[in-house]
Amino acid sequence: MCMKPFTMKRSVLYSLKVIVPAFFLFSCSRNSEVSFASSSTVVPAPTPAVLNSVAFTGNSNSSSALSLRLVSGGIYTLTGTCDISLGAVLIGGNGIGNAATVNDPTTYSTPCLTDGTFTVVINGTCGAAPCMNNYGREVAAFQSGGTYSTTRIYLNLGTIVTTAAQLQAAFGTSGFVTLANDIDLSSIANWTPIDSSSNNYFLQGDGHTISNLTINAGSSSNVGFFSQGTTATHVKNIYFTNASVTSSGDAVGGVMGYANHSHFLNVSFSGTVNGGNQVGGIIGFQNNGSTAFFKDCSAAGTITATGVDAGGLIGVGFDLSPIRSFSTANISGSDFVGGLIGRGFSQLGAVPSIRDSASTGSVTCTANSCLAAGLIADLYGISLKHSNILRSYFSGSVHAPASGVTDALVAAKDTYTDVTSSYYLQGLTCNQCVLTNGSALSSAQMKSSASYVSWDFATPTWVNQTNGITLPQPKR
Questions:
Q1: 3-class secondary structure, 214
Q2: How far apart are CA 169 and CA 312, in angstroms?
Q3: Opening angle at CA 267, ends 216 and 45, nearest 5
Q4: Among 3.40.630.10, 2.160.20.110, 2.160.10.10, 3.20.20.70, what is the CATH number of 159-474?
Q5: pLDDT at residue 385 in the model
Q6: Are 230 and 206 in contact (CB under 8 A)?
Q7: What are the sequence ranges of the domains in the chain?
Q8: What pLDDT is recorded for position 135?
Q9: Which residues of the chain have pLDDT under 50?
Q10: What is the model's pLDDT at position 237?
Q11: C-alpha dihedral, 80 to 82 to 87 to 89, nearest 10°
Q12: Sheet holding 96-97, edge to edge
């Protein structure tokens, strides 16, 4: 299977009401719990969870009980307050729009009315695609001026887990697993990687953390929290901290060893990963990534390959394009070592690219004539669809023997690979660097938003919490 050699400036307030059959009674009062009732019982209404500290009209926030954020289908009208001076509220997600177009899968702009409110319709009925048909799908991301927040509404929670033992056992009985709280895995001396190659598992972290993951897999290949994944495997909104993943085999990743079309959204890994070939902080080997997404992910710690293909995020990626992702990890390997990805190739007509991403750690290759670079060591596109390193930067260091080939952004690329609006730190430590790709910025320029041509600091895709003092980071 594997180849060898932010800060928010304003708050946005929301309330939720449900369009229900006539035999239901619905009530919603400001600053009170949203509820609906039948003639015989009163139960909590489904209220959206909020990612980030955004005030809510009702009792729901990011720490609310999961049972308060479950919907069974139907059309939901979400209203909120906004600042009319900032203009329209832009909303992204699945199953959103106005009453006539509740299946808009991309973005929908609704005006901020003169009374300071906006309204959007969310479709929780999956009779027609696209709609809220995935467990844990983020159906609405709200943006108004400098404010950005995400509301999560769940169609089905699957198995809810609260302990390490429940988490290890859950994947044998459920296709979908939701964390109800942070989970410490220190009680499990050696985690057994979950095989999702045929079971299509979906892990929804709901913003929680899994700490103290330990895997010692000997010489096994396909090693990580998940050993393997498929096109229906999703990992979302979860943070791994103080993790240790070790194997002398190939395809070793902190979160997944071998990923085949698998999806990662808002996944963070911090710890150590040690493997043979194809080693990454999130994924060891991503195959057939043309239909996969990898967005808003990050890695920190130490990533080490005794062989080739080591990356802060991904060891090898076929057709995979990280978006808005970040690595501070220190990475080393014998050859093909990158701050974000070791190697990227076109396989099924799609092209691998790196967009709105950054790396700040050290990158080291050790073999004679090895390749190493701050973002990706080796990147190849195809004639009709160029690969691209777009709006990204590197500010760490690159190390190689005298015979090595290194660069700040990409060490080797073909004529079908472009580098656009991307930067590296002027004077960075880079043994044998030719510095032919991207543009150099001084330390002061790197910390100034004005230095980055065509970068989005308004929507934002990028944020700089202290402009002029800190480096910008992708908005997550």
A1: strand
A2: 30
A3: 120
A4: 2.160.20.110
A5: 67
A6: no
A7: 13-152, 159-474
A8: 41
A9: 1-63, 68, 126-140
A10: 86
A11: -30
A12: 13-19, 75-81, 117-123, 96-97
